[in-house]
Design goal:
The protein is mostly helical. The chain has 5 helices and no strands.
């Protein structure tokens, strides 16, 4: 049986700047996840992707809202092991939120820890 790596697939899309597509893939992951703390973390990833998508479309209100929600959910889900550098992502999202530009940074990426 073939099982998709939805976390990895979304990560690839996110790191390629395809934020909307990453959000779609991570929503599939969120839907099939039962563990509440995992769902919270995945929701934070989805919101980060949506926030950056909004930013790329010059929707600063939507970007600010989604990025703030993302940070809160990622902080709440820090205890799970995703293999991603969620701490660094939270720091970068907070910097972005503190000084919201009109476009996402060209090289906004999430690092793998393993």
């Amino acid at each position: 049986m073939f099982v998709r790596d939805l976390l990895g697939e979304g990560l690839f899309l996110f790191n390629a700047g395809r934020f909307y597509d990453a959000h779609e893939v991570w929503e599939d992951l969120w839907r099939v996840t039962a563990e509440p703390s995992h769902k919270t973390c995945y929701q934070g990833l989805i919101q980060a992707a949506v926030g950056l998508h909004h930013l790329g479309r010059a929707n600063l209100i939507g970007a600010r809202s989604q990025l703030g929600k993302s940070i809160r959910n990622l902080q709440a889900g820090l205890s799970i092991d995703t293999g991603l550098d969620i701490d660094a992502l939270i720091r970068e999202l907070q910097k972005l939120l503190d000084d919201l530009p009109s476009q996402p940074p060209a090289a906004f990426r999430i690092a793998r820890l393993k």
